[in-house]
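Can't paste images in this forum, so I'm doing it all in text. The chain is below; anyone willing to post the predicted structure tokens underneath?
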Amino acid sequence: MWSKTLVSFPTYTFLLFTPLTLLIQLVSTSTARISSRTKRFLAFPLLLSLILIPPNFYCDLFLFNFTYASVGIVVFFRYFDLFFFSPWFYNTEVYTSLEAIKNDALLIVRNLTTSKITSTKSSDQVETARPPTQKGFAPHIVSSFVLVPVILAWHLIHDAIGRYCMTLTAEKVFRFSQVEYFLFGLLSCLYIQASIEFSALLISFWWTLLFNGGRYDTREWHSAFDNPWISTSLSELWSRRWHQAFRSMWVSLVFKPLRILIQSKLKKDFPRLAQVLELTIPTLGVFVISGIIHEYLAYVAMYHTWTPGHQLFFFTMQALGMIVERFFFQNYLLIKESHLLRRIWGLGYIYFTLPYFLRCFVEVESWNVHKEFPSLIKIIFAI
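Text version of the structure:
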């Protein structure tokens, strides 16, 4: 294990966001000015730096170490797709417009008919978002300030859970019974949801306030999550109700290419096998890549207690669970039509797999990162 270099917060920000800014500028430059081959040559060291900086540098704030590592690895995969994989697989040029990049970044909170980044054969063939004034977008426009109480509510939930967890120690949590540990895990998931919802709503608020004249269209903008607690299956939870911030990356880099590959190789001679595998293998591929990303994050942020394989196991098991439930839901009508049985199945599966996801976070008592957040509860009680 090599040592990491402590740097100031501004220095860490500069180290990570400089290559990101250069990558955005490079991919959005017309191929008439810079060829695809040159772009790939210039992009390679920039992409490499995104995944090498977080394991070798850190600042005093755990929250930013984890956040910056998340940004680095996600951007690495997304731009590896844009510079290398998609141009090779789809035989296209390396080009994406700034508008498409913006749309993709806002995907977690914004509904657009075409929001994903696409590589195209020329600089003019870029998918763009349909303006919200066109047919298909109901003008349910309210003031951006209606988001303020919702933002404060999510902050209170986040703050309350964080302050409760700060009364715990790793030793105490590991002494919990299996049921208590599961309930603690669900509370941790709510904490994650509150953190992401709070951040996403702040983005929506400031974006609509600064660029939409303070008008918030409820048909165009949405919450990061879609009531994940009422999910009736693993597929519903992960495919629709959990946040879909990286959906375009999963579809473009993993799901769609694997599906096309299986269809081209098997559909003609083995149509029934192709029908089974064209969803099974891409689903497994998406969760394996997600597991690898989380393994990287666990290593970077918690390297002194990191146990290899736990994150990969958890996410791979989610994919296998989705594959199993698809078979049973299709072949057993009683399970398919009973929301109660479907919820029991989903909760039971999470019950046995969630500890693998939680372990590394508990070992480092990661809830102490909450000390880095301003406390709305403290402010209220002070008043």
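The two ends are 48 Å apart (CA to CA). The longest helix spans residues 178-211.
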